[in-house]
Amino acid sequence: MHACVVVFPGSNCDRDVKVALEAVIRRPVRMVWHADPSLPADCDLIVLPGGFAYGDYLRCGAMAAHTPVMRDVVARAKRGTPVLGICNGFQVLTETGLLPGTLMRNASLRFVCRDVFLKVERSDTLFTNRYAKHEVIQIPIAHGDGNYFADEDTLDELEGDGRVVFRYVDATGNVNAAANPNGAQRNIAGICDKSRRVLGMMPHPERLFEPLLGGGDGRRLFEILLVSLQ
Amino acid sequence: MKARIRVTLKPGVLDPQGKAIQNALGSLGFTGVNDVRQGKYIEVDLAEADEARVREQVERICKELLVNTVIENYAYELVG
Questions:
Q1: Looking at the complex, does the CB of residue B13 fall below 8 Å from at least one CB of chain A?
Q2: With 90 as the cut, is the pLDDT of residue B9 above it?
Q3: Do residues B40 and B6 make contact, with C-beta atoms less than 8 angstroms apart?
Q4: Which residue of B16, B68, B70 is in closest CB contact with A105?
Q5: Do A109 and B68 touch (CB under 8 A)?
Q6: Which of A56, A162, A188, A211 is deepest in the core (most CB within 10 A)?
Q7: Which residues in chain A are contacts of B14 at CB distance < 8 A?
Q8: How many domains is chain B partitioned into structurally?
Q9: How many other C-beta atoms can be found within 10 angstroms of the C-beta atom of residue A20?
């Protein structure tokens, strides 16, 4: 399995996710600069990392979505190459139109950086198929703009298609306002596209990657990807 | 020709920054502030002088980059 991480000016989790991926897939992960016209030909997984691409100018992810390499990312995604967008990467995916909706300023207006509980709503995607259905996992968030918004019709379509992959919950798996860290509609933390091969999520799996960091629920996502894509 | 573009949140879209401004105005003693909505103002100077072509260009600029039509509306006027 060959994975690529796209690096934008202002990305800051690119190396973290590279370390996490390499520890699991045991192959060098290639870093692809945003100005490159294309990704390597044999790329099996594209990761858009967390950070503040272009300083979040205009809107989070808006500038990054129009960089040369993103044209190739969109083309590859449409041909079936899996894409994982984490945090700022999720914002970039919505700005490209690969995922619907948008990520708005947190309802609290505060940057929120802490571990949260997520319910795995779909354990039938190539990113999540070894989590148990409705398993509650712990993954950190760190964002100021993670408030998922889409109109009611889009939300209903997402739910109907089973494309809400992660939802913010309390420790026992209840979806409620108290467990919602940013005001996201319907506690949505992560969604996938119709092909189920493009996943955007605000939480950072690379940050709970080993017991030293406080847990390993994030590592499992990369292990699942390795099995899915081998 | 210059385009003066205003980007505003669609009605019904929560505007936490507008709410914060409203609260700040309240704490400064401004009474009777019913609501505050925050938007963006962007000036784009274009070499093109033909109004029809400028409008076409501004529409594309708005839709392709300046505006997220999921949550935002836009309006503009041309000057110069």
A1: yes
A2: yes
A3: yes
A4: B16
A5: no
A6: A188
A7: 104, 107, 147, 149, 183
A8: 1
A9: 25
* Strand B40-45 versus strand B2-9 pairing type: antiparallel
For residue A149, give the nearest of B17, B64, B71 by CB distance: B71
Burial class (CB in 10 A: 0-12, 13-18, 19+), A58: middle
Going across the sheet that includes A83-86, the strands are A30-33, A3-7, A45-48, A83-86, A198-201, A188-192, A164-169, A112-120, A136-143
Let me know how long chain B is: 80
**pLDDT, tens digit, 9 for 90 and up, residues A96-130:** 999 999 999 999 999 999 999 999 999 999 999 99
How far is residue A93 from each of residues A56, A138, B24, measured CA to CA in Å?
A: 14, 23, 34
pLDDT tens-digit series, residues A23-64? 999 999 999 999 999 999 999 999 999 999 999 999 999 999
Kindly list the structural domains of chain A, giving each domain's residue range(s) and its CATH number in brackets, ordered by start: 3-229 (3.40.50.880)
ipTM of the complex: 0.86
Of all residues in chain A, the one with the smallest CA distance to B41 is A58
Contact criterion met (CB < 8 Å) for B70 and A149:
yes
Average pLDDT, integer, range A71-94: 98
What's the token pair of residue A158? Answer: 């997402």
- A41 to chain B, minimum CA–CA distance in Å? 28
Coil/strand/helix, residue A30 = strand
Report d(CA A221, CA A135) in Å as an integer: 13
Residues of B in contact with A107 (CB under 8 A): 14, 16
> Domain of B9: which CATH number?
3.30.1280.10
Which of B7, B10, B14 to mutate to test binding with chain A, by most A CBs within 10 Å of its CB? Answer: B14
- Alpha carbon distance A169, A177 (integer Å): 9
How far does A129 lie from chain B, in Å, by closest CA? 31
| Residue ranges making up the domain that contains B26 | 2-79
Q: What is the mean pLDDT of chain B?
A: 95
